Amino acid sequence: MYDSGGLNRILLGVQFLFVAFGALVLVPLLTGLDPSIALFTAGAGTLLFQLITKSKVPVFLASSFAFIAPIQYSMKNFGVGETFGGLAAAGLSYLLFSFLVYKGGIRAIERYLPPVVTGPVIMVIGLNLAPVAIKMAKSFDGSGNFNGTAMIISTISLVTAILVVMYGKRLLSLIPILMGIVVGYIFSLIMGVVDLSPIANAKWFVVPWIEAIKNGSYALPVFDLNAILFILPVAIAPAIEHVGDILAISSVTGKNYLEDPGLHKTLLGDGLATSFASLLGGPPNTTYSEVTGAVALTKATDVVYMRIAAFTAILLAFLGKLNAVLKTIPVPVMGGILILLFGMIAAIGVGTLVRNKVDMAKARNLVIVSVVLVIGIGNLVLSVGPITLGGIGLAGLVGVVLNFILPEGR
Which regions span the lipid bilayer (predicted)? Predict the structure, then answer.
């Protein structure tokens, strides 16, 4: 157990937020949500998770990348309030996963969502967004119109992140996203492509919801069936990711969190944190493996550090100058980071298949993986009457159905 005085405890807790910060703010910046609200809901969601799990699991919850494409589509086609309603419903779907685990243990989830389904779904999450990353990397407005300066900036951000991943030591190795953004931003300042006037004009203290309502990035949730059915199936991937993260933190601390407080409790906490975040206008929450890596590095396994990180995130949410800085990050800076990030997400999906020794020589497995990949990456959208399903969610549903109807042993 890490032992420290009061000030050191605070600094270490803030350090965990520092590790999560890059990914935390990147999701709202990509989806048009408010970064300050994302900070608030990450902190509040983490505290809610700790309340439900009786402060037994040292994890930090923040913005989930799995929902980027569904949020972008839903905002455009269903509306802002409808999107938040759909995201809140996706969080409540964790109640079903929690119930399945409570009744049948972890094998219940493995039965409905085996690696042959979850692996390609995770791959789709990364590959589905690949064109977005490329367009952002080579233009200042995300249109994809080639700009040489934009390409230089995105390349510097990408190379920085790669160098941190490959050669970073200790804490530095855990923050490739943040370092890529910082170096890319500094270079953008040198190149004179950053407009600093929004920072100068921003207030020091703001109530983020007032700003979000003004700029159209928040509206009260509307529970529209179309949006719910479109977004709901996407919860499959982060639910499986959650199981992996709980296993990882159990390994780090030497405690079996699958038993105490129980996987059903951690899933419940994650789901309610997601619904809570969505109701307040933040992106869905998920457990952050980067923070688990920091726990392993520092040996700071006391949950109090996660609470410190959570309260710090909540306080930063009201800092108007910080929100203004985040909104001035040039598009190609994010594009360069996303080339690596989305590729890494897809690679995690490949790793899921390899690690679980999914035999791709079997026709059954080959069919499931192939169909899920093409439906997801091709972004197939089906409309039956008022009901619309598409993209990642439809790919996940098709994978689940194929897993049930295709005979074993083929």
Answer: 12-30, 36-52, 87-105, 112-134, 146-167, 174-194, 218-240, 304-326, 332-354, 366-382, 388-406
